Task: structure prediction
Amino acid sequence: MAESRKKKSLRPSALGAAGLGEEKPPEPDLRQAQKLVLELLALPGRSGREGQVVRFIRERLLEAGAPRDALRDDQSHRHTPLGGEVGNLALKLAGTHRGPRRLLMAHTDTVPLCEGARPLVRGNYVVPADKATALGADDRAGAAVVLHAAMEILRRGLPHPPLTFLWTVQEEVGLYGARFLHLANLGRPRLAFNFDGGSPEKITVGATGGYRMEIRIQGVASHAGSAPEKGVSAVVIASLAIARLHEEGWHGLVEKDGRQGTSNVGVIRGGEATNVVTPYVEIRAEARSHDPQFRQKIVRSIENAFRDAARAVRCSDGSAGRVEIEGRLDYEAFRLAGDEPGAAAAEAAVRDVGGEPMRAISNGGLDANWLTARGIPTVSLGCGQQNPHTTAERLSLPDFRQACRIALRLATGTESSG
Ligand SMILES: [Zn+2]
Result:
């Protein structure tokens, strides 16, 4: 770095070039970027087992010339329910010129369906070679985009503002890496760009908040043949409650008085035999909305449906079932201000590469939820990932290349201004 900085000082026009356009913005080596993403896709690393991926990233950064002391990891995994192999990795560089610090980030973990995935280039796409696995482009494509931008800057000695690169862990299991991130490793970024799923033209400036619930239904066991009337069926309680949520419009897409959210009863477990009135059923459900009050309302409706159903099902001696409900907020919703500088910069970078930027609000949680909640307003951009978390997952290579071009502009502060 020191050497490359000296080199740059011979080109004063480039030093203050942020957005002034005296010098052509740097273009990444897209062939190298594709090679990099294929290597990253081939590495295993579901949530909590990102060790190999993080090691790969660290080695590449060092090879490209990152000073060892600019690399920082944290112990975020020590605070998560999963434990896990490693924490987040950050690379913090002083700027070759002044300016607000910028952050580029992506998560390194993939969902379990990606286990054993082998990437295969087919025309304009990368697809999984095996039809039984997903691909893991969510979010190795993002990890590659951010890593490639860092490597280009390091290798070519490109001028840049103060910069932080960040690779997080355990995003897919509850945004834990971002949630427990050691903020001091980042050095107070003012503009933050998170590279995750979808189209590179999609600038996500907000995301929904999510609430998870565990509902335990306690009935009364009894012989289903000789004394069914003495039992209270937890299955019946669950059915009544879920049917009511469905009928009253509180399940699935929830739209009431112009407010919107979603809910889902996703897991239902209980019962062991047909000759026993089922005494116990366990349910896991979730509710989401950008509007915290409305999300609360959905949660309340779910709770009421189960409590009322438990009271309604009684056995011959009059006793009813019981429910216990435990819930927790996974992440709070956020929406960035309309004039957030990171959003404007991202839009400019998208236009610069010939794209048509589109602001979007996500219905899924993102690392950006936690970064923003912790004082770093973060914009998210896609990298060409399609159909994540399914065996139809694929990566659009033209979109991935665009994301690489956008990222390098954002990292070097060379997107057009205004
Ligand atoms: Zn993702």
In short: The chain has eleven helices and 18 strands. The two ends are 31 Å apart (CA to CA). Confidence is low (pLDDT under 50) at residues 1-21. The pocket of zinc ion is lined by residues 107, 138-139, 171, 196-197 (CB under 6 Å).
